# Entry
Amino acid sequence: MPDSKKSEKILDALQELLEEKSIQHISVSQIASRAGIGKGSIYYYFPSKDAIVDALIKRSYEQPLQTAKTLSSQTNISSFTRMAMLFQACRNASTALLKQNKATSTNAQDLAFLHQKYFNYLISELKPALTEIISQGIERGEIHFDRPAALAEIALIVIAVKLNNSFLPSTAEETEDTLKGLISLLEKGTGVPTGTLDYLSLIN
# Structure
């Protein structure tokens, strides 16, 4: 069984190296050296450098995403409240990413690469939970829509892009306007009363 402490050391080593140099110039040997383990041992835990990056992304944003994923089972809470809570978790994850970027000297190319990894992980992890919440709302007659998975993906893509503000840089006012528009579309498209999905849960 893999040693979780050594896995964490490997991830810590990559995180430290990312603050010093471009990801393209970081080798598995350097990660192993920084972690204080043999290069061969790295492959016992991770098949490649890319896999280490994926694991680091997952670790960095695991808590807010795990919180979001548990919402799909909390059927005692209304679908709308859980959607707002999930959007808030998305916001928290994006905020964490931005804070981490500001604290490092990561170059633009590396940021673009890491952001792509982040978006892939964020959407793949949150989409099933949001789809389930929407589906439950449909079953209860609270939401009127016939493509819950598509709706979940559209909402997450817009929210993640706007809150991250790296792929399409916008002013605070532009971001707020876009998110208000998204909430309005969600409310009208699903037949729920205006104000049901409070946009403040995304912006404040």
